[in-house]
Amino acid sequence: MATGSQMGRTAIERGTEWLSRGGLRPTRQRVALAALLVGDGEHRHVTAESLFALSVRGSEKVSLATVYNTLRAFCEAGLIQEVVVDGARSYFDTRMDDHPHFFWEDTAELFDAPKDQLEISRIPELPAGSELSRVDVVIRLKRG
């Protein structure tokens, strides 16, 4: 992931355009975090803590609380999606289409799984008065 002076103008421009697509005001801190998330054009999965660690190396200093709040704002704007792997750990994914994930339990790493290899033939009947929002599939892995 690009950091500091490696981000250059292109990463900042990509981050700013990305924020604009979500209708978010491009504050310095949002632009810096957006550049870390999407500045190289690659999709990634981050935790608030891992994004904070990356931001520490950059020129724009942000607090961990700001990272949490900014990630929530990015989710609400439809720019990223939250992937909850257990009650205590959330990842934020810049890839917005529906797709499954592999989660390595020993290293706590989250990766995209091949979407075309997953088949869900049926889901349980939904409770009255509800509608399906989305289905999250996290396939937990351990070394064998």
Question: Descriptors for this entry?
Answer:
alpha+beta, Arc Repressor Mutant, subunit A, 2 domains, 3-stranded antiparallel β-sheet, 4 helices, 33% helix, 17% strand, globular, WH_DNA-bd_sf, transcription, transcription regulation, DNA-binding, zinc ion binding
Describe this structure in words.
It is a single chain. The chain has 144 residues and is of the alpha+beta class. It has 2 domains: 4-86, Winged helix-like DNA-binding domain superfamily/Winged helix DNA-binding domain (Arc Repressor Mutant, subunit A, Orthogonal Bundle); 95-141. It contains 4 helices and 6 strands; from the N terminus they run H-H-E-H-H-E-E-E-E-E. The protein has helices at residues 8-21, 28-38, 48-56, 64-76; strands at residues 45-46, 81-86, 89-93, 101-104, 109-112, 138-141. The strands form 2 sheets. Strands 1-3-2 form a 3-stranded antiparallel sheet. Strand 2 (81-86) and strand 3 (89-93) form a beta hairpin. Residues 1-6 have low confidence and may be disordered.
